[in-house]
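Sequence dictates fold. Next comes a concrete instance:
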Amino acid sequence: MSKPNGTGFGRIIKAADCSRKGFAAAWVNEAAFRQEAGLTLAAIPFAWYLAADFGHFAILMGVWLLVIIVELLNSAIEALTDRVSLERHELSGRAKDMGSAAVTSALVFVALVWAAAIWQKFS
């Protein structure tokens, strides 16, 4: 009897396909994801310019990757909440607000890390 998610290499292929579908769904359905993905790509040359070394570059881009991760999780929370019910409910609103707060926190983290990098580069 095989497991539903498969094993070994087959499971890796299925997981990769699920990830592809998740990225595609976020791209099609979430304007914030598209904006943050665009900012992440636009940040690459600036991060390369600001970075003192490759590790520094990885940190500058890593904080943007964190924003993408948190946005995907926030979008998943919103989609699941809407799937359960479109009626206004205190707990649904709280879940969505907390997801939004997580994205905002990640963006503040980006601002702090990038401000420090800019300060270091030009002071």
